[in-house]
Inverse folding.
């Protein structure tokens, strides 16, 4: 039911872990099935220089988390913010319809992390 | 690659002896059992023999067996048929919160159509008590449906005692024995059971064949209308090959039960013991009143679908009650009814053993699982070493 790309990212997820000195952290829960994703970003010169994630969820949730970290790395905050859940699903060669909601998790967590960074930044 | 099938509660392979018994009825003896010429008579004879065999193995009379196209159909027929048939006597039905969806959704459909349904809660092991049933029975209760054993957590219900309680009240008692037929002893000549559903593919028979035991004197409204098959209780040209296969499968299961049940119970306990060594693991259901082949656990902090995918990559077939595996994105109603949180239910894993499984299989699983659980926990934001 999953594409090869999904299985690849599920089997060998990229950027798993935490960033203890992160500049922004995003955590979102999935209203549909109760899963949780946490994502840490490091920002340098307005670009995402490092990103890590942890996910409690299904195969699609883990794979979308993994690919979103790849998509985000090196992008400016504005660019990264534009990554849609559709783009995440497409980067994985598609997801089964029932799993489309899992891709929201990853994109949302990234946006949260960026928002968190901006909030902290403005407060400084 | 190693391939280990441990999902026998979902379905089982057809045994070669069963297939052999079925084969003639696909081609040579292809007749319609309702026809009067020789082909029809021979098919009818096969059907009669199968009915006699099955009835004999469960303490029933042949005319009390109604063949259906699945366990789900049998359960639907029991609930809807009894409810409509007894509408003039009352409109209250009692069942439990942990039934298979075939019963649960039939009850919900009846509720939508004017019947009142009480869904009895279960304890933390998934059991209902005869006292709970007694307290729920009202003068207008027409039907009580309590499963024999649960398909997810393996908990066996005290159906003999519940049957007596129901009998006293005059209501009908249905039990879904899909998971226990051929495994536990079922003697309907001694049990107060009016209706009992079972399904061939759970005991090494073919898929798409089930049956409902309907005690003599119990009147049901048919679900499937049409021809006069099954004494007008279930229309449709009989699946003779499938029915013959079901009889053969049950015959073998009952004959081998004395040896097979202790063998598989031992493997089950070995597996449970091994899994308990993994930290933050809980066993679901009862340890004593449990199907001999059922292992159900929850690993905290991880999710079932990712667990199943990892197991599949290592050749192990299993199932989970996680919301992410369910299609409806709802976690298992059974685990929730037993008081587990949504989060814990997420990490559920069911391994159900069968005839082909050996001690080597248990060792293989116990060798692979801790590593998978560890990997997924390392990835989980909930896990705090
Ligand atoms: C307890 C229980 N009842 C009913 C059914 C439905 O049986 P069938 O698959 O034959 O429709 C199953 C099997 O999935 C079951 O485990
Ligand atoms: S995270 Fe639950 S279905 Fe994907």
């Amino acid at each position: 039911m999953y594409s090869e790309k999904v299985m690849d990212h599920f089997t060998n997820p990229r950027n798993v872990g935490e960033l203890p000195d992160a500049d922004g952290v995003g955590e979102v829960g999935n209203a549909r099935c109760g899963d949780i994703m946490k994502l840490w970003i490091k920002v340098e010169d307005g670009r995402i220089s490092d990103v890590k994630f942890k996910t409690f969820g299904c195969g699609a949730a883990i794979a979308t988390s993994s690919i979103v970290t790849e998509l985000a790395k090196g992008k400016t905050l504005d660019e990264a913010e534009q990554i849609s859940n559709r783009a995440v699903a497409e980067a994985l060669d598609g997801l089964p319809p029932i799993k489309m909601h899992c891709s929201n998790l990853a994109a949302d967590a990234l946006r949260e992390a960026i928002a968190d960074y901006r909030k902290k930044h403005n407060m400084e | 690659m190693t391939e280990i099938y441990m999902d026998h509660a979902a379905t089982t392979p057809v045994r070669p002896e069963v297939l052999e018994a079925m084969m003639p009825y696909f081609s040579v003896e292809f007749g319609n059992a309702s026809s009067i010429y020789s082909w029809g008579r021979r098919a009818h004879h096969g059907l009669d023999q199968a009915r006699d065999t099955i009835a004999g193995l469960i303490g029933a009379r042949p005319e009390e067996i109604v063949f259906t196209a699945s366990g789900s159909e049998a359960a639907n027929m029991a609930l809807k048929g009894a409810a409509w048939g007894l509408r003039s006597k009352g409109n209250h039905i009692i069942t439990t919160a942990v039934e298979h969806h075939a019963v649960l959704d039939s009850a919900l459909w009846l509720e939508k159509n004017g019947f009142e349904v009480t869904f009895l809660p279960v304890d933390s092991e998934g059991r209902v008590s005869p006292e709970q049933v007694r307290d729920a029975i009202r003068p207008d209760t027409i039907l009580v449906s309590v499963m024999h054993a649960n398909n997810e957590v393996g908990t066996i219900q005290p159906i003999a005692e519940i049957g007596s309680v129901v009998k006293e009240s005059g209501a009908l008692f249905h039990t879904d024995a899909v998971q226990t037929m051929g495994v536990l002893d079922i003697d309907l000549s001694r049990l107060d059971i009016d209706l009992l559903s079972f399904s061939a593919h759970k005991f090494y028979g073919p898929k798409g064949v089930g049956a409902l035991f309907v005690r003599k004197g119990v009147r049901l409204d048919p679900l499937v209308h049409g021809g006069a098959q099954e004494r007008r209780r279930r229309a449709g040209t009989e699946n003779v090959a499938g029915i013959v296969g079901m009889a053969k499968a049950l015959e073998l299961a009952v004959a081998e039960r004395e040896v097979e049940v202790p063998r598989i119970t031992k493997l089950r306990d070995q597996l449970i013991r091994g899994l308990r060594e993994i930290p933050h693991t809980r066993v679901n259901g009862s340890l004593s009143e449990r199907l001999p082949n059922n292992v159900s656990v929850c690993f905290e902090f991880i999710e079932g679908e990712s667990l199943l995918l990892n197991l599949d990559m290592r050749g192990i077939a299993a199932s989970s009650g996680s919301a992410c595996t369910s299609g409806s994105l709802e976690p298992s109603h059974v685990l929730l009814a037993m008081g587990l949180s949504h989060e814990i239910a997420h990490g559920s894993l069911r391994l159900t053993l069968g005839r082909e499984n050996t001690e080597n299989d248990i060792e293989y699983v116990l060798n692979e699982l801790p590593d998978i659980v560890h990997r997924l926990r390392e990835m989980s934001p909930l896990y705090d070493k």
Q: What stands out?
A: The pocket of FE2/S2 (inorganic) cluster (ligand 2) is lined by residues A 30, 33, 35, 57-58, 60-61, 99, 102; B 323-324 (CB under 6 Å). Chain A has five helices and three strands.
